[in-house]
Amino acid sequence: PRPRSHTVTTTSSSFTANLSASSSTLAYDREFLRTLPGLLMVTEIVLGLLVWTLIAGTEYFLYPAFGWVMFVAVFYWVLTIFFLIIYMTMTYTRIPQVPWTTVGLCFNGSAFVLYLIAAIVDASSVTKELDSHNYNSWAASSFFAFVVTSCYAGNTYFSFISWRSRTLQ
């Protein structure tokens, strides 16, 4: 048997070079958490977690109204964490094609409206006759749902101000 000669050729594309260079320069905005919108986002995450864990610890699945509250609370909790990561890592500066002020306004506006509906549904569904064992958890979740709603209302206001200043330029 005769020995074979193997030749391996490697090439580097400009796409992979740009990708590796750009991913190593991920920014981190420490000052965002010191702004009022940043503080509101952290409050939304912490209190939103309280809303859905207080309900999740009960037999909420027996009552469809609490299922709706759970959906809204978990859905916006996950999205708020997602947006906090985007703002903290300044990803919005790396994707200029996305109209971030409009996205933020739509997100916060929809969160405010749906959380308001969920908080009203939550509060109107809490009765001692329904299930006295879970009464305190449901009442607390209702209170925190209204607090989170007010936080989303504040962030909607700040998003509107930001969106308005961008559209006027």
Compact overview of the structure:
This protein is mainly alpha-helical. The chain contains 5 helices and no strands.
How many strand segments? 0
The overall pLDDT, averaged over residues, is 86
Radius of gyration (Å): 23 Å
Strand content: under 5%
Helix vs. strand class: mainly alpha
The SSE string, one letter per element, is HHHHH
Put simply, the count of helices is 5
Shape estimate: extended
Distance between the termini: 76 Å
pLDDT < 50 runs, ≥5 residues: 10-24
Helical residue percent band? 55-70%
**Largest sheet: number of strands, sense, barrel closure:** none
Subcellular location: Membrane
GO molecular function, one term: structural constituent of myelin sheath
Keywords: Membrane, Transmembrane, Transmembrane helix
Domain MARVEL: 32-164
Can you offer a commentary on this structure?
With 169 residues, this protein is mainly α. The chain has a domain at 28-120. It is built from five helices and no strands. Residues 10-24 have low confidence and may be disordered. The chain crosses the membrane at residues 36-55, 61-86, 98-118, 138-160. InterPro entries: MAL, Marvel, MARVEL-CKLF_proteins. This is CKLF-like MARVEL transmembrane domain-containing protein 8.
What labels would you give this structure?
169 residues; mainly alpha; 5 helices; single chain
Break the fold down into its secondary structure elements and pairings:
Elements: H1 14-23, H2 36-56, H3 64-88, H4 100-125, H5 135-168
Transmembrane segments: 36-55, 61-86, 98-118, 138-160
GO molecular function, one term: structural constituent of myelin sheath
Main location: membrane
